[in-house]
Amino acid sequence: MSRRASVVIIGGGVTGASIAFHLTIAGVRDVILLERRTLASGGTGRSVGIVRQLYPTAETSQMVVRSLGVFQRFRDAVGGESGYVACGALIGVSPAMRAKLEATVKLQRSVGVRAEVLEPRDLARVEPRIDPEHLGAVLYEPDSGYGDPTAVTNGYADAARRNGARIEQGVEVVAIESSAGRVTGVETATGDYIDAPIVVNAAGLWSPAVARLANIELPILVGRHPVFVVERDASFGRPHLVYLDLAGGSYARPETGGLTLTGSLTDDERQHPMEPELLGADVGLDEAAEVLERTGRAIPRLAEARYRRGWAGAFDITPDWMPILDESPLRGFWIAAGMSGHGFKLSPAVGEMMAALITGATAPVDPAPFAFGRFGAKGSSGTFVASYLG
Ligand SMILES: Cc1cc2nc3c(=O)[nH]c(=O)nc-3n(C[C@H](O)[C@H](O)[C@H](O)COP(=O)(O)OP(=O)(O)OC[C@H]3O[C@@H](n4cnc5c(N)ncnc54)[C@H](O)[C@@H]3O)c2cc1C
Predict the structure, then answer these.
(1) How far apart are the CA of 134 and the centre of ligand 1, in A?
(2) Any atom of ligand 1 within 6 Å of the Cβ of 147
(3) CATH class label, 87-144+222-317
(4) Pseudo-torsion of CA 15, 335, 61, 347, nearest 10°?
């Protein structure tokens, strides 16, 4: 069977759903999103959903500020729920990182981020359960917090449907067709052909494999990032703030039901390449113990928390830990991938940016830092921690 669309989006995670919505808002008709399993069944459904605003470049900061505004008024802006909890976020840095933090915060304030650098001794005023001992300073972002990536994906997909897009689940793209250097459409596993002048690769951890269907190599490595869930002791009291401990190498974010999600901030994802199909697999207790020890040093009361479960997550990582949002060398074949662990918090702005680039409208933020060709012959130099402070 052969069908026609003006744009085919491959991947029904938060990125693809946001792009579908923003294309319909831009007036594009006949948008089809194809998801091989169910919406949010990839990295999106395994995400921790933290929204922090500390980024080292003006463009990424602008993207996160725009996105935060959408999470805060998601029901009016999109429909549905973002599950956004503005509990506030704290980012602890070592004494050596303090100067960089202060310079970055200046830049941040200039693009509208509300943030304050606290002395470690003043931390107790905001969150007394964090140990300030090893810290050189703490950044306090009162508007930051966490949201629900699956709810946001469903909100965007429902809104895109209401605006006329077709969202098809259980449909895997197995071939990308092209002619004379231009994409012409896709073939699905059921032998369906969809003719389309524009195809968007929003396949997250699978984006390198999807790009290879079009003979395009993406500089993206899939690196393992496990997450652990612990149950706080009843005496812990009110939930803690989101805490990102860049000095000690862990993070903790509260979850309903007295739970905390925690994991590493040690920049080791690139050293642990992972098969995307292993997403969601169980994690070993040894691995959990090592991370929980670091979390327990950062928030000592969490050292008493009971271990509940863990899962293997993974990031689609580019050499500079920033997304690729651009057309590929195959005309009409666009890439929105390589989210490098930031794909939830940037998703509203990524959809807005991709819709503008695809329709030729003015981009909401300078797209140059997200260009496909920016890596050139340079090797990999970025780190996750550098994606906070440069
Ligand atoms: C453990 C973990 C913690 C994270 N924590 C945070 C955080 O705190 N804050 C934050 O901002 N970000 C975080 N992230 C990152 C963020 O969640 C991801 O970047 C984002 O959800 C990725 O969304 P996506 O739509 O790009 O990709 P995905 O959600 O992976 O979606 C891609 C989709 O493409 C589909 N697909 C693949 N191949 C095909 C094909 N051939 N045909 C059709 N469909 C296909 C897949 O089934 C999948 O559903 C985290 C990620 C993980 C895994």
Answers:
(1) 34
(2) no
(3) alpha beta
(4) 0
